Amino acid sequence: NAGVTQTPKFQVLKTGQSMTLQCAQDMNHEYMSWYRQDPGMGLRLIHYSVGAGITDQGEVPNGYNVSRSTTEDFPLRLLSAAPSQTSVYFCASTPDLLLREQYFGPGTRLTVT
Amino acid sequence: DAKTTQPPSMDCAEGRAANLPCNHSTISGNEYVYWYRQIHSQGPQYIIHGLKNNETNEMASLIITEDRKSSTLILPHATLRDTAVYYCIVRSPLSGAGSYQLTFGKGTKLSVIP
Description:
The complex is a heterodimer. Helices cover about 0% and strands about 50% of the residues of chain A. Chain A is an all-beta fold. Chain A is globular. The mean pLDDT of chain B is about 90. At the A-B interface, strand 5, strand 9 and strand 10 of A face strand 4 and strand 9 of B.
């Protein structure tokens, strides 16, 4: 199993550009989520999905969209990048809604200038 | 929502046991306590979780007090590779029915010293 994979590893955007961060898992997990981590801070939940076709907002959803057309993939879209979205983004998956064990991807470092 | 309190930093000598405390005085009866760690800039790594009883796995032991208001993560023989930020987390509900999140605070930065 590859686990949770994320692409790209690094990205630099200009203000106003849009892009999609990719996340995929091969463990057949129903629950997937996106977090952001700012320097010196813990992780904050952006969006999550409890299964294909079902998504919902987390703590900091503004400026981001998600979709879940398959169990495996959970892309995160930045609609119009802003410097405040400079952060490290982590995708995670877990086999059940009790969140007993989340598997995290390696992260995407995004800089918006 | 249950909140957790952890010391911001701790040191531990290599080869000794590392005991990381966590307070969660508002935890409800059916809430699990989870521990994760984050090594440098990597994605967080699951360590262990528990409800009432003490738990042990190949990475660590989790001791939960009888009143469940605090817990301690024990790394029995700390190595330099255990240097990381350790997060103690209690699940909190989301707006979606039956949905929960794990809220990662700032954690405890554990430094294992040679």
